[in-house]
Amino acid sequence: MELESPLKVRKEFGKTGDRIFYSFGPFEVDVRERVLNRNGKSVAVTPKVFDILLVLIRNAGRILSKDEMIQLVWPDTSVEESNLSRNVSTLRKALGEEPDECRYIETIPWRGYRFVASMQESRERSDAIDSLAVLPFASDQTASMDYLSEGLTDSLIDKLSLLPGLKVMSRNSVFRYRAGESKTDYSDAQRLGTELLVRAVLTGRIRQIDTILLVSVELIDVADGSHLWGGQYNRQISDMVSMQEAMAHQIADRLRLRLTSQDKQRLVRRETEDPDAFQLYLKGRHFWNKLTPDGVAKGLEFFQQSVEKDPMYARGYAGLQKAYGYLNMPVEARKAAARALELDPDLSEAHASLGFLKFLYDWDFRGAEEELQRAIALNPNCAEAHHWYAILLANLGRHSEAIVEAERARELDPLSLLMNQTAGNVLFLARDYDGAIAVLQRTLELDAHFAAVHSVLGCVYVGKGLYPEALAQFEKVRTLAGGHAAVQASITALIGWVYAARGKRQQALKAIEELTHPLLATPYSIAGIYATLGEKDRAFEWLERACQSRSFQLVSLKVDPMFDKIRSDPRYIELQCRVGLPG
């Protein structure tokens, strides 16, 4: 066991800002202030007597030899053993011990001393904790409770993300740590916090008895695993809104954040007074988070029911907007976004989603940037907003800015496959192929079956001229996609691009034949194969078709490597202008 000297402890405190207290009997030791208190009143002791007490406490239960103690208390000074004995005797008197007592300090004849009292350690932060992960609340009940445990987790993340100076880890990353099938507690929250690069972790457990929710929470210091705060809440399910507001307020207080009156208002601001609307929203979010067509469609139903219950519930409309967007219903998504922002102009997620709609479907790049910047200003912790802004910037050719935004999204959501894939894609569009490969390969270490990463990696290999490697990645996507027709057509188009880039004209034309009779791929993809073959007129013929159908893929015209061979053609420059892309 490594012994710790008071000098070392003092130096470390200057770096961490922690304030540690040791309590035993009626005494409390304030390490930072170097004060010994008895029942709240200061006990006068010399600096060396305090150092001896601190050394004994920090090595409680262990026999310390006299030589060890001298070395720890007087590390750079030669002193007599009698000096130690005299200071220990003074300490005992300060603690109220008689010569023949050993309530606190035991003398081991011919050897040394040992601190024997029961002792508790507590710590307080003198500076704010600037990063937090809210781990998914555990439950040992049926799957029907999942929407409540997930919903409470999501709600706390949403609330706390609004606070300035606090980085809150995104749900995508924390939900990868969800407790197993048994819904057991998190046994090593400190390790998880270290992996997520946060200073504190919040864990919780939720249980339902009839109409009562029993919720326990614990805030853990990642540095040493110590308990910063804990709370117990017993509320009616109908009081769930007020419960999560109370939790968010107490957590912010324990994190020692400096909050303005406006920040405090944001914490307690209630978005709906209807508990049924809130629960329906949570159910919608539960199914939306599955990110499958069936799950999103089910989520859409619950979001619709939520706003029917409370037509003034802005977040319910934001849920509708996301579901419509996923299901490729941009008109309905835009209406839902407009209603959400009409009800709550400061709803970050609505601004972010509206920004992406303006980017993909309206080709309103300035408007899209304004919406995304507004979303980030309202909630700097919104990984999704940074992610979409990175994609917008990359397609506008503003690569250095795009890389910064992609890295910020990945920092907020480090275990999200999507955020990591986007970071790789942004590097690919910037023609940093080696950087993209490094990011994408690390992403595959998280999940080797994520098809989108294999697809982007294949494109990167084409850029580097590694055609066999590219084909292997695209075939991997084909296998992972199973029988999904749209994905199969997209992969056939990418393979046709590989053949065109390799100069294998007949194989490229064969791929086009498969995709056009009947038309299976997008006109944009077919144009890319022709462009790479150098057949400019055919490429522009298919690009015109894409433009007439307002294909969202056209937002990539400025940077897509598929069109490098025809980029200088006046027709291409004119098409970019029609889409609204800068020259």
- Helices and strands: which structural class? alpha+beta
Tell me, briefly, the overall form: elongated
What fold name stands as the CATH topology of the domain at 128-270? Answer: Rossmann fold
* DSSP E strands, number: 13
CATH architecture of the domain at 128-270, please?
3-Layer(aba) Sandwich
Helix proportion:
55-70%
Strand content: 5-15%
Number of helices: 26
End-to-end separation in angstroms reads 66 Å
Strand order of the largest sheet: 4-3-2-1-8
Alpha carbon gyration radius: 31 Å
- Full CATH superfamily name of the domain at 128-270: TolB, N-terminal domain
Low-confidence stretches: 1-17, 180-185
Main beta sheet strand tally, sense and closure: 5 strands, antiparallel
Mean pLDDT rating: 85
The CATH C-level class name of the domain at 128-270: Alpha Beta
